[in-house]
Design a protein that fits this description.
Elements (H helix, E strand, L loop, with lengths): L3 H20 L6 H13 L3 H25 L2 H13 L6 H7 L4 H12 L3 H19 L4 H7 L5 H12 L3 H9 L1
Helix pairs in contact: 1-2, 1-3, 7-9
């Protein structure tokens, strides 16, 4: 057998594994792919190629197992939706429609797995992002309020103080010290 045939097969398998990582939104490292290609061509025999493939497959299986053990797929999707679109007006009803689920059931499994209601999770995400902006930018607090999805600045102040125990302006002043 030509020596290029096993290399070609291994390259195809690696590309399929990368597609799996993309499909399941697992950690991907572009440098990792080039390292894998380098190690493929540096492999001295078929056993080294096999070992490399087994290690890569085991890593994917471990990542999938770790992901699944913490949250169900729909809860992960809802959490990702909140993380990516917290600025937008969203609620559990629209998300349950999007994921073809009963609103009450989605709310129950979300609260059971995450430990808080969907609205609390969304609010916490917005407030935590606001804290980051307060501490790491010079944006006006009213602009930060709008940036994280609170058009009413006074409501934002109340929610922030309720969450952190201090006002956004006080936090910014503390940052200076």
């Amino acid at each position: 057998m030509n020596v290029d045939v096993p290399y070609q097969i291994v390259l195809k398998i690696i590309m399929l594994l990368e597609e799996i990582k993309t499909e399941y939104k697992l950690e991907q490292n572009d440098n990792g792919l080039s390292k894998i290609f380098d190690s493929i061509y540096e492999a001295k025999d078929i056993f080294a190629l096999r070992t490399m493939l087994v290690l890569e497959i085991c890593e994917i299986i471990n990542e999938l197992h770790a992901e699944k053990s913490q949250y169900t797929p729909v809860v992960r999707q809802v959490m990702k939706e909140v993380k990516d679109n917290y600025k937008e007006d969203m609620n559990l009803k629209t998300l349950s429609y999007k994921y073809n689920m009963n609103t009450s059931y989605l709310g129950q499994i979300f609260q059971k797995e995450v430990g808080c209601t969907f609205n609390q999770y969304l609010s916490n995400t917005k407030i935590e992002k606001a804290r980051e902006l307060i501490l790491h930018t010079n944006m006006k607090i009213s602009d930060i309020s709008k940036e994280v999805g609170y058009p009413d600045t006074s409501y934002f102040y109340r929610k922030f103080k309720q969450h952190y125990g201090i006002s956004p302006a006080s936090l910014r002043n503390m940052k200076k010290y």
